[in-house]
Write a structure and sequence with these properties.
Helix content: 10-25%
Number of strands: 11
Strand order of the largest sheet: 1-2-11-10-3-4-6-5-7
Distance between the termini: 28 Å
Largest sheet: 9 strands, mixed
CATH superfamily: Vaccinia Virus protein VP39
Order of helices and strands: EEHEEEEEEEHEHEH
Strand content: 15-25%
Length: 206
Amino acid sequence: MKPYYQDDAVTIYHADCREILPQLEPVDAVLTDPPYGINWIPRINNRAAMIGDDEEFNPAFLMGAGKQHLFWGANYFANKLPNSEAWFIWLKQPPTFDDCRKTYAPCEMAWSDFGGKPRIKHHCWDGNFRAGDQGGRFLHPAQKPLEIMKWVIGAADGEIILDPFMGSGTTLRAAKDLGRKAIGIEIEEKYCEIAAKRMSQEVLQF
């Protein structure tokens, strides 16, 4: 299949990952933020529902694609994964907040088979309170901060990272900045275009 975008470090495919994965060579690590199967409707700019989020998510088809795996939102489908202590916990709210609100989760959780104990990182990403270098740019309703994706990629072994639910390409950008190679697959072409633009700029921090 012809890539949507390709450079020395990154390859992007515009496709359904379930269709293209059998055509790819095994990678070192699969790191992704898949649809959780909770029928979530983003409230940012009245965006539409996420593709695939209206059905229960089963990560089994991804387990053979890499030597290591990390899935954000796996607390929603943990019953379909092996037991693991190696969860990554991203604390999102400012440290002065007392977790009294019910509209946003104060943290996000990622299951991994990296080994070791749970890991925790505080990086504010709550409403208008956002740390880091994103400059306020919100390119996808489920976008993760670049710093958080660098954190989890830094804990993975190997050279080649795969994100089969690429979105706006934050995993790929983080991998490229860390000197890794990355493959991204995305079903919506508009996000392939956004990700391609992010990859084509060598000095870019969003």
